[in-house]
Amino acid sequence: MLKAISNSLSTRLKHWIPDTFVFAIILTIITAIMAVTLTDTSINKVTDDWYKGFWMLLEFGMQMVLILATGYSIALSPFISKLIDKLATLAKTPGKVYLLVMFIGALFALVSWGWVVLTAVLARELGKRVDGIDYAYLVACVYISGAPWVAGLSSSIPLVLNTEGNFLISTGVLQDLIPVNLTLGSLLNYCYLGAFVLTFPLLMWLLKPKTNSSTSMGDLLDDDHREMKSVAEEALSKSLNGTSLSDRLNNGRWLQMVIAIAAAWFIFRYFLKNGFDINLNIMIFLFIAIGLIAHQTPMRYVVAMKRSCSNVSGIIFQYPFYAGIMGIMMFSGLGAVLSNWMASGASIESLPFWALFSGAVINFAIPSAGGEWAVIGPALTETALTLTQGLPAEQIQAYVARIAMATAYGETSSNLLQPFFLLIILPIMGAGVKIQARDVVGYLLLPFIYLFVMSSLLVTFVPL
User: Fold this and answer.
1) Are 361 and 342 in contact (CB under 8 A)?
2) How far, in Å, CA of 109 to CA of 104, rounded?
3) What is the DSSP-derived secondary structure letter of residue 433?
4) I want to staple 113 with a disulfide (CB 3.0 to 4.6 A). Which of 149, 259, 328, 409 is the partner?
C-alpha cells in the first residue's frame, strides 16, 4: 500500500511541482505579501530588504559551487572509480543499493552536512553499475540520507549556542553558553539518531519502486554523454605532440604533486591544531588536495573540474533569490512575528512541538538553520525562559537546549520539501542526466510526513 501511494504521489506531483526557480519566485512573492500585511513594513521597505538580503549568501553560494565541483571531480578519478566498483559488489540489487546509500549517507551526514556531496557521487556511480535502479528514487534516498546532519558534528544551532559571545548572549537573552552535552549529547538527540537509523532505511525499502517500472540512469542520459571520453583520454587529446614544453607542463606530475603535498601538509597541521573541527572551507581544501593527487596531472584535473562545473547554474543564480527571501524575513521582522504567533499560548509541555513546527515553516523562507535561529531563536528562547521560571538552573538550560534542537529538527524535516538543498545534489546526480526536482519530490512527501511526526513525538515525550 505504501509503495502504491508513493508511486502515485510521484506521478501526480510531476504535474504539479514547478522548477526550483519558479518555486523561489513564488516564495518571494508570498513572503513579500506577508511582510506588508503582517508587519509595519511598506512595499518600498520590502523591496529594500529583498535587495539587501540578495547578497547575503554570496560566500555560501561560492562555497557550495566549490564543494560540489571539487567533490565530484574526485569521483572522476580512476582510483575512486575502482573503489566504487568494489562497493558495487556489496550491493548488486536496487534494494541493496538504496539501503547502502541510506546508511553511508547517514554516516557522512553525522560528520558534516556538506558530505552529502560524497553520498551523491557514490550513488551516481552505483546507478551506472547496478541494473533496475529507479534513478529518481535513488536521488531521493541520497537527499533523505542527509537528514541526520542536524544531530551531528556540523549542526549549526547547537554550535552557535556553545560559541562564546553568540548573539543570544550579546543581546542579553541568555547569560551562559549551552554546552553541546545538552544538545548533541542529550538523550533526545540519541533517540533521534536511533530512530532515524533503525526506521528510515526500512521505510525507504518499503517505498521503493518495482524494478520492472523503474526508469534507470541509462534511460535518462543525454545523447552527448553516452559516448564521453575518459578524463585521461580527453586530457591527452589536448596535447600538441607530447614533447613540447607546454605539453610537458600540462601533463607532467611534479608541479601538481608539489601543490598537493603543500595542501596536504597544511591540512595535517590544521587538524593537529584544531582537532576534528570541520567547516566548509577546510572541506573544500581537503577535496582539492585529494583531487590533485587522484588526477596526478594539471590537464586531467582541469578536464575533471570542467566537467564538474558544467551543471551548477542552479546554485549560481538561485541562491541569491533565496537570500533575498531571507532578507525580507529578517529585516522586516516577519520571522519574529511568525515565531511569536506560533509560540503564543504554548505551555511548557507543548512549546517543543511549536518550536519544531516554527522551524519547519520558517525554513521555507530561510533555508539555513543558523540564519533561521538568528531570526526566531530569541523569541523562542525568551518564551522558554518565561515558562521555566522557578525551576533549577540545570533544568532551565536543558529545556532551552530542547527548544533549540526541536527547531533544528523541524528545519531539517521540511528540507525534504524545500528544493534549496536539492540544488546541491542535482548538479552531481543530474550531470548529463535528464532529471529535475519535480521527478524527485513525489518520493519525498511520505518520508517528510514520517520524519515530522517522528520528531514531534520525540521532542514531546522523551524526558529531559
Assistant:
1) yes
2) 9
3) B
4) 149
Please compute Rg for the chain using Cα positions.
Answer: 23
10 Å CB burial of residue 394 (0-12, 13-18, 19+) is exposed
Q: Which residues partner with 433 through β-bridges?
A: 221
pLDDT, tens digit (0-9, with 9 covering 90-100), for 281-330: 888 899 899 999 999 899 999 988 888 887 778 788 888 888 898 889 88
Query: Is 338 within 8 Å of 361 (Cβ atoms)?
Result: yes
Question: 60 versus 205: which is more confidently predicted?
Answer: 205
Q: Across-strand partners of 221?
A: 433
Residue-wise burial string across 37-60, b where 16 or more C-beta atoms lie within 10 A, e elsewhere:
eebebeeebbebbbeebbebbeeb
Going by C-alpha positions, the residue among 121, 14, 29 that lies closest to residue 76 is 121
The predicted structure's pLDDT at residue 15: 64
Q: Are 154 and 278 in contact (CB under 8 A)?
A: yes
Question: What are 297's three cell numbers?
Answer: 596531472
Alpha-carbon distance 26 to 44, whole Å? 19
CA–CA gap between residue 173 and residue 167 (Å, rounded): 9
DSSP calls for 129-176: HSTT--HHHHHHHHHHHTGGGGGSTT-HHHHHHTSTT-HHHHTTS-SS
Highest mean pLDDT out of 13-17, 192-196, 338-342: 192-196
Burial string for 260-294 (b: 16+ CB within 10 Å, else e) reads beebbeebeebeeeeeeebebebbbbbbbbbbbbb
The total number of residues shown for the chain amounts to 464
- The answer on pLDDT for 405 being more than 60 is yes
Per-residue pLDDT tens for 95-107?
Answer: 889 999 999 999 9
Domain positions in the chain are 2-224+311-461, 238-310
10 band by pLDDT with thresholds 50, 70 and 90: low
Distance of alpha carbon 142 from alpha carbon 123, whole angstroms:
7
Q: Using CA atoms, how far apart are residues 376 and 169, in angstroms rounded to an integer?
A: 15
The cell for 92 is: 548488486
**Cell numbers that stand for 96 in this block:** 541493496
Q: Which three cell numbers stand for residue 384?
A: 522558554
For 220-259, b/e burial (b = at least 16 CB within 10 A) is bbeeeeeeeeebbebbbeeeeeeeeeebeebbeeeebeee
Cell numbers given for 141 = 534516498
